């Protein structure tokens, strides 16, 4: 038993070193822009760059739009499948997992072929149309994470009893969704939203091939022309991802604490 615990701790330590050491090396390199001393010069250069500000703002806006579309699409679908079509759950789960096995480059090339300027729906012919197409592409990439988070949240509550009670009081479907189901799965929705935000901020393939001014292509462009600034930008991107993960943990723990207090 003691030997197993030692090996478990060794495996954990190896995993931590495997992930943490490269990040520490990246952080250390990003602080060496000023010769002979550590400084935040690379970070100030990146943060003051108009290109960074424009692309980061664009990606944040696309992330918010993707989250809204994902919530509107996933929450009613997952709710209705659990309530009325439980036999279709394996099929829906399989469909939502497809973006994990189909490369983003395949999806975006399909979009370009279907919605180019010579098609019946020429979305790529205008900036707004391309933005809509990119938002839908991001929604597809985030679908596995958003659906699993919402479906797990719905599984933790008795949606059938809640729905029947609301219907007996004359509530409409929209009222049931907005005032009963959504508040009870809000933590799950927020978890999916933070994961979606992290995915959209760092996504490169779709934004690059659709020629949109997103944060991912800017990171690649900066990395091809400079030395220390890309390292600083990578640290910032990692920090954003970890903040999203931390917020998920904080919200989950607060929800559990509130639930325990109510009991």
From TrEMBL:
It comes from the Bacteria. Residues 56-249 form the ABC transmembrane type-1 domain. The keyword RNA-binding does not apply. InterPro entries: MetI-like (IPR000515), MetI-like_sf (IPR035906). Its main location: membrane. Belongs to the binding-protein-dependent transport system permease family. It is a multi-pass membrane protein. GO terms for cellular component: plasma membrane. PANTHER family: INNER MEMBRANE ABC TRANSPORTER PERMEASE PROTEIN YDCV (PTHR43357:SF4). Pfam families: BPD_transp_1. The chain crosses the membrane at residues 7-27, 56-79, 91-114, 126-147, 185-210, 230-254. Keywords: Cell inner membrane, Cell membrane, Membrane, Transmembrane, Transmembrane helix, Transport. It is found in: Cell inner membrane; Cell membrane. This is Spermidine/putrescine ABC transporter permease. The keyword Membrane applies. One of its GO terms (biological process) is transmembrane transport.
């Amino acid at each position: 038993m003691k030997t197993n615990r030692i090996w478990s701790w060794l495996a954990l330590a190896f995993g931590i070193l495997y992930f943490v050491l490269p990040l520490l090396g990246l952080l250390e390199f990003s602080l060496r822009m000023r010769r002979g001393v550590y400084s935040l010069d690379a970070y100030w250069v990146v943060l003051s760059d108009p290109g960074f500000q424009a692309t980061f703002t664009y990606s944040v806006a696309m992330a918010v739009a993707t989250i809204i579309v994902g919530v509107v699409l996933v929450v009613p679908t997952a709710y209705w499948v659990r309530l009325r079509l439980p036999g279709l759950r394996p099929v829906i789960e399989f469909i939502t997992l497809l973006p994990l096995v189909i490369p983003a480059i395949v999806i975006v090339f399909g979009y370009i072929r279907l919605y180019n300027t010579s098609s019946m729906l020429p979305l790529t012919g205008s900036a707004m149309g391309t933005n809509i197409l990119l938002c839908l592409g991001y929604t597809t990439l985030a679908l596995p994470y958003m659906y699993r988070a919402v479906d797990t949240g719905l599984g933790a509550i008795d949606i059938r009893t809640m729905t029947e009670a609301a219907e007996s009081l004359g509530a409409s479907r929209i009222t049931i969704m907005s005032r009963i189901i959504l508040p009870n799965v809000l933590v799950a929705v927020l978890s999916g939203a933070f994961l979606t935000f992290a995915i959209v901020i760092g996504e490169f393939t779709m934004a690059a091939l659709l020629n949109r001014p997103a944060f991912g292509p800017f990171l690649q462009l900066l990395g091809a022309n400079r030395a220390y600034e890309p390292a600083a930008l990578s640290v910032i991107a990692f920090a954003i991802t970890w903040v999203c993960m931390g917020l998920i943990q904080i919200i989950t723990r607060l929800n559990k604490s509130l639930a325990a207090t109510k009991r």
